[in-house]
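Friendly challenge for the regulars: who can give me the structure tokens for this chain first? No prize, just bragging rights.
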Amino acid sequence: MPQAPLRPATRRAWLWVPLLLLGMATTVVAWGSLGLATGRQHGWAAVLAALEMGLMLRLGGMRPGWCRALLAVAATALVVAAVQWCIAAGHIGAQMGMAPWQAVPKMGPHYVLTLSLLANTRIDLLLLALSLPLALRAGR
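First reply, four minutes later:
Bragging rights claimed.
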């Protein structure tokens, strides 16, 4: 039997959007849960988040270039900020008898920044800072 010729794979230019959002959401939930369960910030997870954001954009079929690299950096920065916010809100909310998702909208950015700077070690802060250039590299 003759076989039909193979068609070139069609690119789905929009697939990177749901993959990136899914990667961001799962990273925030996993990293935030780990931080709340152990009472530590786990700055090393920022490095994994940076690699995941680059991978999600690649798997989604986004074209390589500066746009993809800068989007990976922005997604990583959003994930880091969201995790710091969730961990701080989880600890403060628990003292007031609230669940973490109830305490998140009640926290202000300056309060979260103060709590995050107090909770993170120097190594955590270094890893958080290094995650952004790593995301730039992973997103290229």
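The chain is about 75% helix and 0% strand. The CA atoms of residues 53 and 75 lie 7 Å apart. Your move, everyone else.
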